[in-house]
Amino acid sequence: MSRFLRSPLGRLSAWLTAPDPTSRLQARLGQAWLTWLRFSRNPLAMLGLGIILALVLMALFAPLLAPHDPLEQDLAQRLLPPFSPGHWLGTDEFGRDILSRIIHGARITLTIVALVAVTAPVFGLLIGTVSGYFGGWVDTVLMRLTDIFLAFPRLILALALVAALGPGIENAILAIALTAWPPYARVARAETLTVRSADYIAAIRLAGASHGRIILGHVTPMCLPSVIIRVTLDMAGVILTAAGLGFLGLGAQPPLPEWGLMISSGRKFLFDQWWVATMPGLAIFIVSLGFNLLGDGLRDVLDPRSASR
Amino acid sequence: MSLLEVDDLEVRFPTETGMVEAVRGVSFRLGRERLGVVGESGSGKTITGRAILGLVRPPGQVRARRMLFDGIDLARLDEHGMRRLRGQRMAMIMQDPKYSLNPVMRVGRQLTEGLRLRERMSRSEARKRALEALEAVKIRDPERVYDAYPHELSGGMGQRVMIAMMLIPGPDLLIADEPTSALDVTVQAEVLKILDALVRERGMGLIFISHDLKLVSRFCDRVLVMYRGRVVEEIAADRLDQARHPYTRGLLECLPRIGGPRGHLPVLTRDPAWEEA
Amino acid sequence: MGPFERRGTRPASAKEEAGLSSNTTTTTLPPDDISHRLWRLARDALRLLVMLATTFLGLLAITFFIGRVVPIDPVLAIVGERATQEQYEAARHALGLDRPLIVQFLIYVKDAATGNFGTSLLTAKPVLDDIGRVFPATLELATIATVLGVLLGVPAGVIAATRPGTLVDQIIRIVGLMGYSMPVFWLGLMGLLIFYGELGWVGGPGRLDTFQEMMFESEVPRHTGMILIDSALAGAWDIFRNALSHIVLPAGVLAYYSMAYISRMTRSFMMNELSQEYVTTARVKGLPEWRVVWVHALGNTLVPLVTVIALSYANLLEGSVLTETVFAWPGLGLYITNALMSADMAAVMGGTIIVGAAFILLNMASDILYRLIDPRARAAA
């Protein structure tokens, strides 16, 4: 044991868990390390993390990982079943390798998730904190607006938007993001209301901090843990919505290997060549499951009040 | 004649950082008298009360050499047997009626529930008993309270309802877990007066758990002082000033006295040896 | 002298003597007579109505805006590309598109309020009529699925909450987790594949087989538009059975979805309630454990759970869009998607508004129910 402690890894670990940190950085990193330790003790959460990492890696290294070109058609090889030589998951009606298409589809999925995850929560956070912080008519107006968007079923609004703007992946992302921000605004507002009347906020206001500084520097960080948890759990739903749009032909357009679109085109062959529709669905399922597991794990660790243990 | 005999009670909880021993070898006897159990948060006093009633659920572990209640060994009794004793012969009132009464159920229903289930009493008969119980705790408008919801009652009223509810079946043992800590001082006095009268006229045994040493010394016959899961002192209430354990002495000395000296109050210095006492 | 006989105690206020609360949130117990009750009811109803109106207005604003963003020129779609300038202007005027935007919006609102959603390009009938025809099918599906979801999900959540960490709990959680990680349309396809394609246990796509469809059209009087109810009322039992075999799969898929969400929420709420003091009180009273869990704890859980159920119903309305496509179920979802494919904007917008309105109403209903069920919310002014 003492040999471990003297090794560089051991010294790092001791530094991180030292009870009297000497710098803010040390304290922060130490906290993060302890949080990570608790997180890693949850096997399901680690599974979720693993799935997401696999998704990211698949997306990044798609051209290297995919055995075939996802767009290359080979009609002589159409509708081959899984475990056929060279086509682990079979081929679709154009002879395209399903495995390669799924791997490349990860890019599309990741893009959608990343874009929505970056835009919707940020926008929602902004609206929520401003609304909660200033109160009064600002609050009323913004919350009315939030309620109106919340009242919209996500898929239907996306349908309507796409109907208006035309199908395509950018419009799909826009539509999803537009319906995704209201819950964040609600959550941020609730947290802001709790924090707003705290003494330390009054203290920095007395010290002369501007509203902007207070909101950005002090109120927002308090909202972050719940927002992070929400984002992760939300992404599970975003994937499903995006797949739904793809299924209806409103998201990515053929021949892009978007998973929902693949299910839709596989539908014609459902009863005899079931793998064409089943495989992409499994991919969607696994990724969404991954986000759910990760989100649950994060919630257990970051917000023990609502731990689902 | 002992109503309750607790012999070497131990309660442990497994946590992430190892086993926490909340109660470590507590022993005492209780007759038809009032026993006060005093300690700070974390001393194990509340858990002791709950362990006696069999309310410590897994993963908590309860072990005792013996826990005799009127001859029945609670430590060896199964849940079914405990359930028959609870309510009927042993009862407990808790700290804050805001939380300890079911918020979505009317008071009357909560009062009569046990009766109707156990003794299959008719609705009107049970209602009569409940109204009598409410009158016994000096509630002036029992019909109104009977139909009310808990959140419509003040703290004192709620606690009185709680007492009535627990005393309806006529138990022999009552454990009062900080019954007045959530109440205003004047209301405290009223509730204690009622409790005093009821316990006296029914000849019940009472375990009064509190963090308030002064209160316990005035209300109870004997006092147990607990520190970190152990009993460090057991003494008659009227001889409290002759307490010997340094912890008890320390507690007594840091209480301000009206008319006493006005210098700085001493602060308790904890001796780690007390944990092993 | 007893310990509690003090001289000069402050006399309790009259309110406290009567046993009534004197905290500041409710100054007095509100007088309970009929006139006050009615007044409070009226005031609450008014407030809800105002909220409903504003939200609905916002909904219309959004759909109006979306409708105006369409890159296709609606005038051109009607008059064709070879129309003259005058014909174009005339059509434009007839459509009201030359008026200022705010006037257009007001006309739009008036139309929506009177149920005029325009005419569908596909069916050449008023959109509202079309929707009236297809909505019951969606309602039938969503209602059955929600009922099943509640009947299965609530007990599952309670059982999981009372045995945390055990195998039963894990199984229930995993089953639930799978439920809301799956794309519902994919689950529908898998269901079709396995239970219809391979096993032949259930009917296929559509609400009825062709033969029964003909029988239904000709013989069964339409009361609700829901095949199960109408055929049962008419005593047409083989139509009923056929309809049942067709609805089993789509309703089952949606029910799984609903059950997953409801069981998770129930479990979460129940675990919260089971750690409350009143549960200990109930146990101290010696009540059997089933009563403590299913009457006391669950009774308190129902309060937030009602909101969850309403939300789940709303989710199902949305999920039905995709499920109906998979099962060729002629409901509102299929109507909207078909309209989408044919660029039938009026139908799409009309359908969107109806679903949005249903959503708003459901949210409002859950709010009202919450207030009715929770006695604390009832008292708060």
Outline the fold blueprint.
The complex is a heterotrimer of chains A (309), B (277) and C (381).
Chain A lengths: L1 H5 L1 H9 L7 H17 L2 H18 L1 H4 L32 H37 L1 H15 L3 H12 L3 H28 L2 H8 L4 H37 L11 H8 L8 H28 L7
Helix pairs in contact in A: 4-6, 4-13, 6-7, 6-9, 6-11, 7-9, 8-9, 9-11, 11-12, 11-13, 12-13
Chain B lengths: L3 E12 L2 E13 L3 E5 L6 H8 L8 E9 L2 E2 L5 H7 L4 E4 L3 H4 L6 H12 L4 H14 L5 H6 L7 H13 L5 E5 L7 H18 L2 E6 L2 H7 L2 E6 L2 E7 L9 H8 L24
Parallel strand pairs in B: 3-8, 3-9, 6-7, 7-8
Antiparallel strand pairs in B: 1-2, 1-4, 4-5, 9-10
Helix pairs in contact in B: 4-5, 4-7, 5-7, 7-8
Chain C lengths: L13 H4 L16 H36 L4 H6 L5 H11 L5 H13 L13 H36 L4 H15 L2 H15 L11 H10 L7 H8 L2 H38 L2 H8 L4 H39 L4 H10 L3 H29 L1 H5 L2
Describe it.
The complex is a heterotrimer of chains A (309), B (277) and C (381). By secondary structure, chain A is mainly α. Chain A has 13 helices and no strands. Chain A is flat. In chain A, 44% of the residues are buried. Chain B starts with a strand and ends in a 24-residue tail after the last helix. A six-stranded mixed β-sheet of chain B has the order 6-7-8-3-9-10, with helices on both faces. A four-stranded antiparallel β-sheet of chain B has the order 2-1-4-5. Chain B is built from ten helices and ten strands. The model of chain B has no long low-confidence stretch (mean pLDDT 88). Chain C has helices at residues 14-17, 34-69, 74-79, 85-95, 101-113, 127-162, 167-181, 184-198, 210-219, 227-234, 237-274, 277-284, 289-327, 332-341, 345-373, 375-379. In chain C, helix 2 packs across helix 5 (101-113). The longest helix of chain C is centred in the last third of the chain and has 39 residues, at 289-327. The two termini of chain C are 46 Å apart. Mean pLDDT of chain C is 80; it is low at 1-30. The chains are: A mainly alpha (309), B alpha/beta (277), C mainly alpha (381). Chains in contact: A-C, B-C. The interface between A and C is large, with 47 and 57 residues.
Q: What is the averaged pLDDT score of chain C? A: 80
| Cα end-to-end separation of chain B | 28 Å
H/E order of the elements of chain C?
Answer: HHHHHHHHHHHHHHHH
The residue fraction in helices of chain C comes out at over 70%
Share in β-strands of chain B: 15-25%
CATH superfamily membership of the largest domain in chain C: MetI-like
Query: How many strands appear in the DSSP assignment of chain C?
Result: 0
Oligomer: heterotrimer
CATH class label of the largest domain in chain C: Mainly Alpha
Question: Level of helix content of chain B?
Answer: 25-40%
CATH architecture of the largest domain in chain C: Orthogonal Bundle
Biggest sheet details of chain B: 6 strands, mixed
Uncertain runs of chain B are none
